[in-house]
Amino acid sequence: MTILCVRFQLPPVYEAALPQLIGLLEEFTPVVQALPPDAALADLRGAERYFGRSAVELASVIRVRALALHGVDCVIGAGPGPMLARMALRDARPGLTRAVSEDEVREFLADRPVVALPGVGGRTARTLCEYGLDTLGRVAAAPLSTLQRLVGAKAGRELQEKANGVDRGRVVPNAVSRSLATERPFTRDELDPGRHRRALLSAAEELGARLRALDKVSRGLTLTVRYADRTATTRTRTLPEPTAHSAALTKAAYGLYAALGLQRARVRSIALRVEGLDPAEQASHQLTFDPVDEKARRIEEVADRARAKFGPRAVMPGSLAA
Amino acid sequence: MPGFTHLHTVSGFSLRYGASHPERLAERAAERGMDALALTDRDTVAGSVRFAKACAKAGVRPLFGAELAVAAPGARGDGSVQRERRRTPVRGGAFIDESTPRVTFLARDGARGWADLCRLISAAHTAAGLPLLTWDDNHADGLTVLLGPDSDVGRALAAGRPDRAARLLVPWREVHGDALRLETVWHGREGTGPGSLRLAARTLGFAAEQRIRPVLSNAVRYADPGLGPVADVLDAARRLVPVDPAKGLDSGAAWLKDANGMLGAAERIVEAAGFRREAALRLLEQTQATAAECLVDPEDDLGMGSVHFPEPHLVGAGGRTAQRALASRAAAGMVLRGYTGRREYWERMHRELDIIAHHGFASYFLTVSQVVDDVRDMGIRVAARGSGAGSLVNHLLGIAHADPVEHGLLMERFLSKERVVLPDIDIDVESARRLEVYRAIIGRFGTERVATVAMPETYRVRHAIRDVGAALSMDPAEIDRVAKSFPHIRARDARAALDELPELRELAGEKEKYGRLWELVEALDALPRGVAMHPCGVLLSDASLLTRTPVMPTSGEGFPMAQFDKDDVEDLGLLKLDVLGVRMQSAMAHAVTEVERATGERIDLDAVPEGDPATYGLIRSTETLGCFQIESPGQRDLVGRLQPSTFHDLVVDISLFRPGPVAADMVRPFIEARHGRAPVRYPHPDLEEPLKGTYGVVVFHEQVIDIVAIMTGCGRGEADRVRRGLSDPESQGRIKVWFAQRAEANGYDAETIQRTWGIVEAFGSYGFCKAHAVAFAVPTYQSAWLKAHHPAAFYAGLLTHDPGMYPKRLLLADARRRGVPILPLDVNKSGVAHRIELVSESKGSKVWGLRLALSDVHNISEAEAARIAEGQPYASLLDFWERARPSRPLAGRLAQVGALDAFGANRRDLQLHLTELHRGARGGRGDQLPLSGGRRTAPAGLPDLTSAEKLSAELGVLSMDASRHLMDDHGAFLAELGVVSARRLREARHGETVLVAGAKAATQTPPIRSGKRVIFSTLDDGTGLVDLAFFDDSHDACAHTVFHSWLLLVRGVVQRRGPRSLSVVGSAVWNLADLLQVRQEEGLEGVAARLAEPGGTGTGAAGTDGEDDGAGPARRRLAGSDGRPAPAGSAARDPMEDRRIRMPTGYEMHPWADLRPAGEGPAVGRKLWHRSPGSAG
């Protein structure tokens, strides 16, 4: 019961406030893992002894400090491992920390739906439910071989361990935010490819700027197009080289979009996400003899500085200005 | 100043393009002082007949034409060569390609022009995809061609390329020469596109330069100004995209402008083209001259009012005339049926032949007889229905079964010298083989003589809401919810329904939220939105058919289909034979085959013994579910009161259960007299003869004919004409005087005359033709006989062909109640169709069970079902998988409902094995299957489906609760509530307040005597059926729940009207599924809390009356349609003016009665069941 999962109730803006809040947690323990956009895991194993308080008591302290220092409320779940802490978080409310102790793990899990387990996505959950394994208790009771036949060898073993409360996860400090996302909704069913591309351009520009602000580069790009009937199409592409360059992101986004070949689809929103973020200094960049690329990057740098000084709308592509 | 004629006008028959009905266009043209008007619909002339009739009424000369897409010279029909292929969209589908140039063709030279037009339209419809006329087909002598802004020439001009336009014009000029016109259109648009002033001016200049006569048109899409938004919605619905203001909207100018308005346009155009102002008049003159050339007469040239039968040599007349052939066939029939010794038969035959000869209809009779013979030779059950059964000749030719002389049926009801309309013989065939019959008819007479009839599908409220909602970018889920909450009413009544119907109250509260939606929905009222093949009409004509109607292939089967609907073809003098597919015939055929397959016993249904006591016993018990014509709640009630014991009683029963007799209150006196509770009275002793069979109550048309004939001394032919006149209030007055005079002359006293007239008048035209009833009663008796003697086979037939008004699961419940064992689906035993199986045999009495069919499994294809049935038996799961090769989802569904239980393991384990087999097959990893004990499937340790899950799976997969009745699980809760079961209800006292519960089986709001709206519903609780009625006063609280829930709990008062006739008048209703859930989650206290809530009333009952009045006139104008989606109960006045529908018989009908109510029909399958998250599949 030494791992805390803290979800800060941030107003729906950037994850920009998160680093400060992570800093707050780091005053208690160095082992803090950010879970963007608004949560973090903290391993309080050492802190309990150091502060002479239990994790639940420390949770109250954290909440008070977050409110006092940053005016941000938070909900906290506590458990013996990261997985259980996260699951406990779902039962927690502001002011009520949900703690799951070692001995009550099994009962805690037994009646939960499988989908509550971190790492079990919609597809796995559907498979399991189809075979009547709709609660974690039933999953735990099913033979390992059957589970492995259902979801695969490795996933089956992990699933059974998790369902039995075996939590092998660790809190990894400094694990960075792994993705950034942004969405461009339309006010009506939008069919016009021109407007779709504008939305893509603006989203890619924004993501590029945010990446550069964080000094990160991204290895992959995901496009999600949502339709009027509440369904969505998602396509992912790995970028040729890790980049935070808006033009490269835009080009990749256009490519993804064109591959969909949309004609009469009633698009309600377009979302872009950059994934696989690495520190910018670790990125490699293929140099060319063509000065165009070089120039574009220099212009971008200048534009970034102008934006930092005069606001995000100070410099933008012409086609977005109208 | 010259007048003006619109040469380019489309109506609503241009699907999802034109916004006004042809009738409205004709009216407006007359109002705006025009002498002529052309109708040039897109790809069709379907509106022509209505248009011609409306024009005749309005005093406007009709011109006929069509707008067709024409391929460029040299291009083959497909047109795909030039265009690069676009990537297939992952979602939403491709754009509708409307890029082909369109040209307007006007029929000019009378019949030749019309024939050319028909040929061009037929040719255009041979293209794959959208209709497209290839250049090779683009030639005609009798047509005038208008090249407008949408033609290739017009487009070249719009692109500022007069050189290209000149080049494109050359082939047109070669083909059509002097018949070519250039059409200028000005809609006040900017730029150079269609409708712009610059394009109009360029066209005019180009015409002068090329020496081609220009004409002015307005490319009319709607009759009145202000309908631009409707045109936008139609465009959106056609292109399947939302309305996008950024992409340009309709100009709003494409309405039927008057001559002055068009002169103004002409002046602007000629000035812009640089001519003097007077040139405008010349432009109008040219237009008028073009219109004047187009002379197609609706009577002579379209063939309205004349009749065309197939040539005699095709119908077995050989070298003789049709009349001679008919006479000799009829005489042969006399001999064959053994009537030779009976004089009255000979006399009647000769009299009928005379009438037939008088009209020259002999070919018609031979044609029908030929078709019936062909059908019978194919081994398909066939029966004539309708008034044709009253003709002895039909009986002799083998068309009708029943002997008209014996049953007292009259030829005059069918055909007489006085009647000038086409006679009408309908034939019923097995529904499952209807298309075979069509093919046989086409094969016999050839595609140049046969075509099916079109049936325009028009906008009613639900479709209108869907299309407008989609055009306005509404949320699809929201659209769906709004559309589904409406009953199936006319679109123009949308707002009235919102204000008046209690079940829409919630929706009415948020009416404002949807803005323009309602206005646009009402504007779409009755516009055609698609064309389908009429389910029963077949046109038969001589070889000239294709010059009189264009044909297009039907979408599914590729039958040739005439573009006219069933009313139009009658006006056009095309002979229509109604071939109705009757599911009951298929069901009975299947039952007979099953009996023969299983027992070897051959049943000839047409020869079952008459007066079988077991059969009538069954009918009298009112357990007539599944029996033809007598299964509805109302009929079961009537049968219970009438207690039929002979065939004649059945005939009367069927005739009484019609809106007319019910309205004229013929039922009660009849029942009273029948059971001796009231004396039999005749208005006059002379009338005893025709009225004797029905205890002095008039039931049949034939009786009215006889009464009139006897009292007035006119012939029966004349009497039938009089009878037809009764439905029209105007002629009714005249008839009354005539009747009194003639009867007096025949020596009847005034009181008798008055009394008789009272009867005749009340009867109106709403009796029933006895010939119909006799034709109906035959399958009624046959089906009841089957149900009494071969119940298992009967249910097998019913379930296979699904006739009737009830869901299959109700038939299954009925079978269970009648002690037919239901055998579960099993891949080793079930056939494609439902079968019977011997369950037990003891001392000569055999119990046959009903084995469920593979074809009822959700989403099974015919091929899959056939493959599974063929490969039986299967030794193991692996064997089944390999040989039957079911798709993965199908195999899963089979496992869920236990069809694979024979292979061992539980159903979830089977699922897992199937998944692995599927993966194995895909991955090519061989076919290893963990088997234990050889053929048994090894268990995998998964939890089996619970009993509730199994039932849920059955409902989901089979739409039937096959293993037990779905209410069985809730016995405990129902007992807690003190619910009375259907079986116990039979002992309930009149006036007792009871609780009943069950699954909803059918809901109706039929027209009834009091003129109120009553909701009738039937609940099924496993022990029987409970018939419910909800009257006006309970609608506020109940209507929504009744329409939109599947499991109901109802509080009501027992109404008893006879020993077997009882219903419950509901006063409160709850959704039982909700209550069950509450019971499970919150216990009885929760249920109590729920019951304590005021039932269903809730939000804003008071409200929106005030502002509706203001919207009234606007709505009426916008609704803009005189098109009639046949109003409920016929003879309806416009209910927008008068909220009650008054029947000629003097009784008022509630305007919302007789509509299919909201909700999705009775409880079937998937939606019925509350599904737990862990439920299978």
From TrEMBL, chain A:
Family annotation (Gene3D superfamilies): 3.30.70.270, 5' to 3' exonuclease, C-terminal subdomain, DNA polymerase, Y-family, little finger domain
Keywords of the record: DNA damage, Transferase
GO BP annotation list: DNA repair
Annotated UmuC domain residues: 14-121
Pfam families: IMS, IMS_C, IMS_HHH_1
Listed GO MF terms: damaged DNA binding; DNA-directed DNA polymerase activity
Classification via PANTHER family: BLR3025 PROTEIN (PTHR35369:SF2), BLR3025 PROTEIN-RELATED (PTHR35369)
Cited function: Poorly processive, error-prone DNA polymerase involved in untargeted mutagenesis. Copies undamaged DNA at stalled replication forks, which arise in vivo from mismatched or misaligned primer ends. These misaligned primers can be extended by PolIV. Exhibits no 3'-5' exonuclease (proofreading) activity. May be involved in translesional synthesis, in conjunction with the beta clamp from PolIII.
Family of the protein in this entry: Belongs to the DNA polymerase type-Y family.
Protein name, entry field: Nucleotidyltransferase/DNA polymerase involved in DNA repair
Classification lineage: Bacteria, Bacillati, Actinomycetota, Actinomycetes, Kitasatosporales
